[in-house]
Amino acid sequence: MTSPAPLVSAAALDLERFMGLWYKVAKVEEPQDALRTRERYEFLQRYDGGVRVIATSYDPLSNRWDRRQDYMAPVDAKGAALSSHYQLPMPVHFSISRFGPFGVSYYVVALDPNYQWAMVSGPSPKSFSILSRRSELEPGMRAPLEQLATRQNLLKAPLQWAVPDQDAAPR
Asked: Where does the secretion signal sit in this chain (predicted)?
């Protein structure tokens, strides 16, 4: 039996192909995110080249769904907004506007060439997640994705894998 070929990441992100629904299938737990489950993100292209993000998650302690909307725009290494590019070189740096003029960094650091999974990171070394187009990864994908993240020095703590979601999120 041969081992699967090593995973490769796309060299560029096609913003239009990246749009749509993504499920958070693994994450490095940060204290403020520990209770969130069944997390999903819908990325919607805006007329100005930015992206509207609708984040939905479930809080089992309060038995309720939380939903928030953010705006993110591709930026260069210094944080200056990029013009409306559809092909952005990897890794891609976005600034998420949550607090008025202040932005939070968000990086797409690895991406499946077929846009079936993505590795994303926030501003802290422990904010790392794996997103998937499906709520459950194909069998055998966990180990290769963890190996890719380790090879690229992205993992600063153990990954917590999400339980597959059987229920639909509220609309």
From this structure: none
